[in-house]
Amino acid sequence: MNVLKSLVLTLGLLIVSHAKAGFITTDEAALDAIFSQSSFANIPIDIRIGASSELVFPNLLDITTDAEVNQLFNLHIGGANIVNFYFVDTVDACGGFNTGIVGCGEFPGNDFVVESVFAAGSFGSEILAHELAHNLGLDHRTGGLMNPSLNSDTTLTDQEVATIRASSLVQTDGLSFWININPVLIVATASTPLPVPEPSTLALLLLSFSLLLKNGVKRK
Ligand SMILES: [Zn+2]
Asked: Rounded to the nearest whole angstrom, what is the distance from the C-alpha of residue 189 to the centroid of ligand 1?
């Protein structure tokens, strides 16, 4: 065995030993509220979260390179007008950025990834809506939902809502409007049923991450 192979093997073992699993948290009602705020002028866009899928990709539980982001998004499940929410352990790469990232979304596109712990925390709906809005064609701006970092502000302007309505992700039957979203869980090994974090463990994780958030965690 040459040196390179042995290094790769060692690294592979390390990754496996630390691999956990993403877990899915979505608050459909909170997302509906963001996509029916006053700038939607009483014509809401209903967020419809469909069936979850589980994919076994141990190397994608911790996203560290843009190549891994691309590999993840190339796993897309379903048609082009279905958004995939991917849930992983950590996201440390996104479009050339590599620090302080908790989520990454195609702009525009139909895939985005978030860190499971953040999606489950108090900023969860803000992160999901922000990344979804990238998919829908919105770029960053200062303030509001599209602020580059977490700010507890989920405001969308009239212009941003107009951009969202123009997205091919928005479906309509002529009476109402909606976006179909299917969560995708990334795991190291197949699990049935889906893993549920221990409440005490989750509380500790959320506590530690809420402390981090106070120091300003960037989203991308
Ligand atoms: Zn962003």
From this structure: 30
